[in-house]
Amino acid sequence: MSVWQADFYRRPLKNQEGQPLWELFLCDRTGEFRYTDFCPQKSASSEWLRSQLQSFDPQQLPAAIHVFRPASVPLLQAAADPLGIAVVPTRHTAMLKQLLRERLFFYRQSPEYTGEEYDPLAVERPAPVPVPEHLWGDRWRFANLKAGVIEDLFRDRPMPFQSMPEEFLPVNLKLASTIAVPGVVIDGGRNSKRLGNWLTEQNPVRIDYIPGQPDGLILEAGLADRWVLATFEDREVSEAGHLYQQRLLQSRGLHFLLVQPDNSGMTYTGFWLLLRET
After folding, report:
1. Helix (H), strand (E) at residue 54
2. Which of 23, 134, 212, 222 has a 20 to 30 Å separation from 35 between CA atoms?
3. What pLDDT sits at residue 278?
4. SS3 for 231?
5. Is 110 helix (H, G, I), strand (E, B) or coil?
């Protein structure tokens, strides 16, 4: 399936009339295909975007467009839907983000540059909020699995909830089979399925250990949502958290979230293979 990655947002540029400029930037997963065009802010609309898409040969248009910026999603959806193109909100647009970082040099060299501080990947992020109490399980813990066993253990295992994107599989990330992939295991007890259903709706992206007073475990989900999975002050758990972060570096950001009714190892409720992009 042909997939493009897209961003449509205001840049640190103004035209001769002083109008802020918006840029449409398109690329594919490899970066071989790239397309860019600008419009003044007063023209930034789904109609303008649709005219840009319609300028391509219909055979060249993708089946889907991946978008990481929340503000861009509704505009691109309105433009792409009539053309039969699915718009997929996702944080995993690695090539697009790389190219947007590189374009900072172009903006700064442009005579239209405003001189303002600008982060091409910045999105509005709400403060993290606790996972609703009625969803929480009996206990949780840090864990790890050898990269070489993950696919065999979970790929074809029957369970109500599962997310193992092909590009996240250890073999496709070229991880050695002996690498310890870190993760978080939740024994959900009677709330196991309810928690699994809620997690599926939130679309987990990554889990971060945040040292502090107290320490915390933050679930990043959707395009910009953040949830507090746990807070703790126990020294042993904090040490496990630091080890979790170290293993994330060794596993190239690959980690997992496992929800199960109990720790018997007999049944699983949900398994999410996650990737922290750098």
Report:
1. helix 46-54
2. 222
3. 56
4. strand
5. coil
pLDDT tens-digit map of 92-142: 999 999 999 999 999 999 999 999 999 999 998 889 999 998 898 889 999
CA nearest neighbour of 248 among 198, 201, 200, 210: 210
Please give the backbone phi and psi of residue 261, each rounded to the nearest 5 degrees, phi first: -65, -40
pTM above 0.90, yes or no: no
Burial-class residue 130 by CB neighbours within 10 Å (0-12, 13-18, 19+): exposed
Name residue 88's amino acid: V
Q: In the block, which residue shows the tokens 């991946």?
A: 66
Distance separating alpha carbons of residues 245 and 142, to the nearest angstrom: 11
Least Cα distance to 275 among 247, 243, 252, 250 occurs for 252
Nearest Cα neighbor of 10 from 38, 34, 52 is 38
Q: What angle do CA 259, 265, 266 make, to 5 degrees?
A: 100
| Beta strands 129-130; 225-232: pairing state | parallel
DSSP H/E element including 141: strand 139-146
Asked if 55 and 35 count as a contact pair (C-beta separation under 8 A), the reply is no
Using alpha carbons, select from 201, 177, 197, 193 the residue that is nearest to residue 260.
Answer: 193
Q: Are the C-beta atoms of residues 25 and 76 closer than 8 Å to each other? A: no
Indicate left, alpha or beta for 133 from its phi (over 0: left) and psi (-120 to 50: alpha): alpha
pLDDT at 64 over 60: yes
**Residue 167 phi/psi, 5° resolution?**
-75, -10
Q: Report residue 254: phi and psi, to 5°.
A: -75, 135
**Alpha-carbon distance 174 to 132, whole Å?**
37
Higher pLDDT, 262 or 268: 268
